[in-house]
Amino acid sequence: MPIHEKSLIRPENLQVHENLEVEGVDVSGHWSTFIESRVVSDYNEAIEDEISALPGGENIHRCWQCGSCTNACTVHAINADFNPRYWIYLIRMGMESELLRDKDIIWQCVSCNKCTYACPRDVFPEGVMKATAHWLELKGHTPKSHSTIFDEIFSEQVIETGKIEDGRTIRRFFKQTGQALRQPWLEEMVKRMLRNLPIGMLTRMGMANFIQPKTSGWSGARDAIKEYVAEQEAHHRAALGLDDLVKMAETELKTGAAK
Amino acid sequence: MSDKKTKYQEVAYYPGCALEGSGHAYNRSTKALGKKLGLKLKEVDNWNCCGAMEVKNIDPKIQTYLSSRVMSIAANKMNMDVVMAPCNGCYHNLKKAEYDLQNDDGSKDVVDRLSKKAGHDTYQAGQVETIHALDWVKETIGEDGLKERVKNSMQGIKIANYYGCMYTRPRHIFPEKDSGPGSESTSKPHFMDDLLEAAGAENVDFPLKTACCGGAHTLSDSDTSTRLVANILQTAEAAGAEVIATECPTCHSGLEMHQIRAEKTLGIKTSVKIIYFTQLLGMALGLKPKQVGLHENVSDSFSFVKEKGLA
Questions:
Q1: Complex prediction ipTM
Q2: B58: contact with A, CB 8 A cutoff
Q3: pLDDT tens, residue by residue, A71-114
Q4: Interface test with B, best of A75, A145, A225, A226 (most B CBs within 10 A)
Q5: For chain A, what are the domain ranges?
Q6: Cβ distance B162 to B209 under 8 Å?
Q7: What's the N-to-C CA distance of chain A in angstroms?
Q8: Tens-place pLDDT, residues B279-303
Q9: Fold adopted by B3-132
Q10: Domain spans, chain B
Q11: What is the pTM of this model?
């Protein structure tokens, strides 16, 4: 059975009757399992264009559905629901509601690029996964994933100072995602990390908390990148029609209030 | 002497952020190894982050710009024609920027615009050659050179060589790989195997050389990373390895961190040691464990290297 038809045989779409006769024929029991008829009426034909407007999604139209990406996928090996080929199919068909069933795991792509290595059509599935995860967040289908929060903290620091300091990034990430720093495995790691370190090194590490590493003369690059980021964000919002959505909501609120 | 042998004697050194933080042992051991081998490293002046996976996820073209700035300084300010990056992430990103600048006009335009605004020369594709620390040792000293210099043979040490993702994938950004005799392979990389074997080590047949450690989500999706790492550690042990040799600070700290996490959360205990290849080679050439930063690793391998005659 082709993967895109598998939704037909989800348990909720199957019916088995204990005593059913249709036109004189007994159709009871497992051997006469019925499949609920499916009508797809909510195609969203804009999804493919929207995702290909986001960084990484540019080549999604090249996909031939060979399945090499899923076959090579690191995450698929530990969670069979993680299926890049299937998602690319759904996006290209505009089957939004099916895609949304997996909205909470798409961000889990580990960017190992095994898919990109295997893909015979240069779809860059890794990029498509990132674009899809961003699309879900921008459209409000999912909250920002931990991965996006980490990326943002990291990138903000790089754009501000030119460099990152990992201890600071990690602490900000734990704080922002509401995770405790005191976890048994983390404490054990810090303990082992400090075991062999000389005092000088510890002091240096401690100082890094106060003196952030910086690239000197970075302000020109910082301003240039910030300007570019703002431009790109506006571009992505336009491609996804986000501003129109906001306007629509505002008008509705106003007319609602007027009534 | 081959072209590369001469060309790589003195290179621009790009350590990157990780090597100033969690991967400091790799920084220390790379520099110590270079000194021991008589190779010159000139650190890139006032370098910046390569963009890493995180900035790429926000916008790939900013990552291209960040990496291009590093190459621009090496080429235009320092007049160097080779940049050596030991970190797989940095190495990968510089290579990717090089590829994008050669093949994608959009990236070229953005890099040119940002460079002008930032007030430095735009990096032009082809100005520098980016190499990994493995290329650097392999091409300058090579197996024969190492054999001559070994003081403490690694004989009897069983090693699983772990290359990770970013050193070989995606293939198109590494045009020099898979290009005939003497070149590195993207499906079965062997440069680290070759070097450690020359120093006497016994490489085990390790099927997960280029498997993923989940480094991208080491903190944001720790459970996945722990499962991936536990698999790598257990497979290495099943293959008979006592040590996993690493060549990437993200993989290295990922393996170390999730080795502990696998024990604490999944009850999977492994005792395989995790050591940078530069640390192993350095000790084989007679450097002391502290000179190669063994004390900066999380996993404790002091007694192991002593027992094996490396210290």
A1: 0.93
A2: yes
A3: 999 999 999 999 999 999 999 999 999 999 999 999 999 999 99
A4: A225
A5: 3-35, 47-138, 144-178
A6: yes
A7: 53
A8: 999 999 999 999 999 999 998 899 9
A9: Glutathione S-transferase Yfyf (Class Pi); Chain A, domain 2 (1.20.1050)
A10: 3-132, 143-307
A11: 0.92
